[in-house]
Design a protein that fits this description.
Elements lengths: L2 H27 L23 H21 L6 H19 L6 H24 L3 H18 L8 H23 L11
Helix pairs in contact: 1-2, 1-6, 2-3, 3-4, 4-5, 4-6, 5-6
Length: 191
């Protein structure tokens, strides 16, 4: 693959998470009932109770697709083991949208698997690339859930969900930016 194609594919890693941010933002804007103090993000994707479910779920599906395309085209040669984990996380993200809250416990399982998978992806990247940033993404994401579980702060489950996603998505986007600008150090350095 030539460097021009790599740049185009690297853009998918930058754009992918923004699709989720946009779908969440639009969904919240059209859902006056949504509350960061009471709700889970997946409440926006409930195909019966949420009028914005198509927007929210399509955003997750499209993000998963873009991340998979980014990973299989350019990221895999920069971080082989992280790539395997990242593809798995992207597929599970698509399952969160496919098996929305209507599916009850199946949705709960795929949601938990998604967050566990992004933490594993962060840890694998921290080890594979000796990345302090990846370790920090893991710590931030996991800490948000621990603090939520300990009731250190009052909020709905949407808060640790978005914190975890942003931490790992930032790591992903930074890797894509570095590939785009052909900086082969830090996260994307080759062995």
């Amino acid at each position: 693959m030539n460097s021009t194609n790599e740049k185009y594919y690297a853009l998918l890693g930058i754009i992918g998470p923004f699709v989720t941010y946009l779908s969440i933002w639009v969904s919240i804007m059209f859902s006056p009932w949504f509350s960061w103090q009471r709700n889970a993000l997946s409440d926006l994707g409930h195909s019966i109770k949420s009028e914005v479910a198509p927007i929210f779920n399509l955003g997750l599906l499209l993000t998963g697709f873009l991340i998979i395309m980014y990973t299989v085209t350019v990221f895999k040669k920069h971080a082989k083991y992280t790539s395997i984990c990242l593809i798995t996380s992207a597929i599970i993200l698509q399952l969160v949208a496919t098996f929305d809250e209507v599916y009850g416990s199946l949705h709960d399982v795929v949601s938990v698997l998604f967050f566990v998978s992004i933490w594993i992806t962060s840890v694998v990247n921290a080890i594979e690339k000796k990345s302090l940033l990846a370790l920090m993404a893991f710590i931030v994401g996991l800490s948000s859930w621990i603090l939520y579980g300990m009731k250190v702060y009052r909020a709905g489950i949407a808060v640790p969900e978005i914190i975890s996603f942003v931490a790992v998505a930032s790591l992903l986007q930074l890797s894509a930016i570095k590939i785009y600008f052909e900086k082969n150090d830090f996260i994307t350095s080759a062995h």
